Amino acid sequence: MTGQNGREDIPPGTLDMLILKTLARGGEMHGFEIASSIQQISEDVLQVEEGSLYPALQRMLLRGWIAGEWGRTSENRRARYYQLTRAGRKQLEHELLRYQRVSTAIARILEPA
Amino acid sequence: MSPGELWRRLRFLRKRDRMTEDLDEEMRLHAELRARQLREQGAEAEEANYAARRKFGNRTLLKEASRDMWSFASLDTLWRELKLAARTLRRSPGFTITALLTLALGIGANTAVFSVVDAALLRPLPYPAADRLGQAVIDFKTPTEQGTFSDLDGRTWELLRDHADAIDPAVYSDMTTEANFAAAGHVGYVRQQRVCAGYFRVLGVRPALGREFTRSEDTENGPPVAILSYGFWRNVLQADRSIFDKPLLLRGQPYTIIGVMPPELQTSGGADIWTPLRPSTKGEGADKNYTIIARVKPGATWQKAASQVEALGARRLSEEHDIPPKYKVRIVFLPLQKMMASDLRTPILLLWSAVGVVLLIGCINIAGLLIARGAARTREIGTRMALGGGRAQVVHQLLVESLLLALAAGVAGLAVGWIGLAAIRSVAKESLGLWQAIALDRCVLLASGAVTLLTTVLFGVWPALRASRIDIRAALVEAGTRGVAGLRTVWPRRLLIVGEVALGVMLLAAAGLVVRSFLYLRNQPLGFDPANVTAATLPLQDARYQTSAKINRLFEDTLARIRALPGVESAAAGMCLPYERGLNTMASVPGRDGQDTVLTFVTPDYFRALRIPILRGRPFTAHDDMHSPRVGVVNAFFAKKFFSGADPVGRTIANGGSPMQIVGLVPDIPLKGSLGGYAPVTPIPVIFVPAAQTPDDLFQLVDAWFTPSFVVRSSAPPRDIIAGMQKAIATVDPLLPFSGFHGIMDIRSDTLAQQRFQAAVMAIMAGLALLLAAIGIYGLIAQTVVERTREIGIRIALGATLRQAIRSVAAPGIVLATAGAILGLLAAFSVAPALRHIIWGVRATDPETFAGTAAILLAVAAAASLIPALRIVRLNPAETLRDE
Fold it and tell me: Chain B: residue nearest A57 by CA?
C-alpha cells in the first residue's frame, strides 16, 4: 500500500468521511481544493486519486449530502464549489462515530498485552 | 431510494448531457491545476500535463460510471435488452410468427372462454351484499346418485316463512312464461314471472316507481296487480307515468300496475312483468314447484341461518313417508351464487379445461421451439459467454426475449379473445342460458394477464436455464462441425412431444365423447315426419280460458278455420311438441303405483298432423270427450317399461286419481328429458290424453307452465300458412294472437343448444390441439433432418437406401406419438368418468371413441413425421459432404 514518497492511498470506506470533514472545515471548495486540502492536512501522507474523488463527489451529490454550485476561482476560472448540506452534516457525524468505534476497537486489539 | 434521491435522478434523466458536460469541465480544471502544481515542483510542461491526465485514468469510463450511478441503471439495461430481443426476434420471423400465432390463439381462446366462465360461475350476483343470499334446496344421496334438487313445495315455504327468524325468505316460480297483454294500443306477448311479496326486498332492489307486492296482495283471491320491468315500461308503454291509473290487460284480465323496477335490475328469470305468486299448499303448491331464496338477516350468521333451514327442512321431510330408507335426504341452505350456476358447472369447467389444455400444448410447443432455437444459438451464446457475458446476463436476455414474446402475444391474444367473444357472445349466452352479461371485464383482463405471465414463466425459464448451462468450448467446437445430432437437445424435446401428444389425446377423447353424445341426442329416431309442418305457439293462461270447454271450443273453432286454408292437409293442437317437455306426473300401472311418467294433451288429429304412426289400437276421435270414458295413448317406451313390451292396448292404468283405458300405441318420439336421470332429449314414458277429456284444474295448472302449440301439415308455402293461421286465430279471438311460428326442427336446435355449443367448442379445441401437436412433431423431425444432414449424407454415400434414411429420421416422431397416445389414453380413461353426467348414449370409457382418437392422432403424427423426413429425397449426398 505504500506509494512513492511515503504517500498512502485512502483506506477503503473512509473517503466519504474525509471529504465530508474537509468540507465541514473549509466551507465551499472545488474538487482540486478538496484533494489538495486532504493531502496538506495529512502532511502529504494521504493522497486522493482523482479517479475515485469525482465518482465519490457524484455519489454524494446523488445522496444529497453535498450540494454543488458553479462559481469562479480567484483566477476567474469556472469551477463547481461543493458545500455540506444538513444531511451531509448528519452523515459526517454518523461516519465519525463509526470510525471512532472501529479504530478504538482496533487499538484495543493492538495494545501490548 | 429516498424521495430526494429519486427527484435528483429524475432531474438527471432530463439534463443528462448538461450534467456530463459539467463533470467533464470539472475534471479538466482539476487536471490543469494539477499540471500547474507539478510544473511548479519542477516538471517539464509536457510531462506535467501527461502525468496530470494519467492520474485520472480513463475519463470516459469515469463519466460512464457516473452516468450509470445517476440513471436508473436497471431500467436502462432492460430497455437495451428489450431492443436487442426485438432485433433477435425480427431476425427469425418463422419462429416469431409461429410462437406469436400459437400463443395469441391460446390466450385468445382462454380469454373468450374465461369471459363465459366469469359470467356463469364467478361474477357475484348483481345484488347488494349478494354473499348473504342463499337458496333452500334438497340435498340427496342415493346408493347410485347424489346431487341437489332446487324445487320445493308450499308446506316447506310456510315452515321457513313462519319459523326461521335468521332469514328473510322469498318464494317464486322459476317458470317464466309468455303472457298476452293489451295496453297502449299494443297487443303482444310479454315474459311473465310470478313472485311472492318481498321478493325484490330480499334481492335488495327497490322499485324505481311505486312499490312491490304486499302480503295481502299475495294471497289467494288477492287483487290482480303487476310490477313492470323498466325496459317494458319505457319501450312498450313509452315511459308513461300515468300507467298506475290505467289497467293493463294481461292474460285477458285487467291488472293494476303498482310498480316499475329500476333499469339495472337483472333476474335469472329474465321477466318483463311480475305478478303475485300467491303461494299455497294446494294446487301447484301441493307439489315441488317453488323456488325458495332468502337473505340472511342483519346480525344473524350464515351458520345460524343454515342450521335453521336444515332443522325446519328435517321437520318437513319427516312428514314424507315414501323416501326409501337407503336415501339420505336433507333440505340445506346454499349460497345463491353457487346454486344459480349449478347445472352449468360441469360443462363450463369442461370447456375451460379444454382451452387450458390447448394453451398448455401451445406453451409446450413454444418451449420446444425455444429449446431448438437455444440449440441453434449455442454458438452465439457460447461466443457471448466467451466474451465475458455472465451466465445470469445470458439467462436474463433469453428471459427478456420470452417476456417480449409473451407481451406481444398477450396483446394479440386479447384482440383474438375480443373477436372470439364477439363471435360467441350471443350463442354462448343463449345456449348456456346465461342471464348475466358476458363481457371482457377487469376480472377477465386480470386472468388473461395472469395466464400470459404464467406462460412466460412456463415456456421461458426452462429453455433459458438450459441454454446457460452450455460448455463454451464444446459449444463453439461442436457448432462448427455439425457431426451427429446433439442428443442433449433432442431428448427434452422428445419428452415435450410425448407430453403434448398425451394432452392432445385426452382432449380429443373428451371432445369425441361430447360430440358423440350430441350426435346421439340429435339423431334420435324421429318417430314423426317434420317436413311441411308449421308450428305456432299460443299461450293460454288467460282469464277467459279457465275451463276445458272454453279451451276446447277455441281449439276446435281455430283448427276448423285453419283446415279450410288452401293446401292444409291436417291441423292439430297439443300441450307440447317433439323435443319439448311434457308434464311430469305419476301413473299407476298394474302391479306398481306412483310411477314417474310424462303427460301431454292433444287434439284428435295430432298424430295425423305429425305423421306419427299408430302401431296398435286407434288414435283419438271427436267422441273421446267428457261424456265418454277416459282414454289414453302411450308410446313404445311406456309399453316397454310398464308392460314389459306386451301390447298395452285395452289395459287400464290410473292417473290423476281416475282410471284410464289405453286405446293406442305410438312409437317413441324424442322429448326433453324432464324426469331425473333422463337425457336432455330422449324417449321417455309418455301418456297422450285427449284435450277434450282434460279437466279444468289440469288445464289451469298446465297453462301456467306450458305454452300449447298448433301444428299444421300443409303443402302451401310456410308464409301463406302463417298468414292464414294468424287470420284464423284473429277471427276466433282478436285478443289472442299466436306468440311465435317455427319449423318443428327448430325446437330440436333450441333444446340441444347447450349440447351443440359444448360439442362445437370441444371440437374446435380438439382440432387446435391436434394442429399444435402436429406442428410440434413436424418441428422436431424437421430440425432432426437439418441437424443430421451431414450424417445422412454419409450414410447414403455409404450405401444406405433412401427408405432406410427416411425411416431412421421419421421413426422417432411415430414412436413418441405412440408413447404419448398410450399415456393420454390411460389418463383419459381415469378422467373421463367425470363427464358421465353430461354425456348420453355413449359410455365415458367408450372403446370406439378412444380407439378412434388414437387412430386419428397416430395418422396425424405419421403425416407430421413423414412430410419433413421426405426432404431427404431432395438431398444430394455429395453436396452435403462438401458443405462444411
Answer: B66
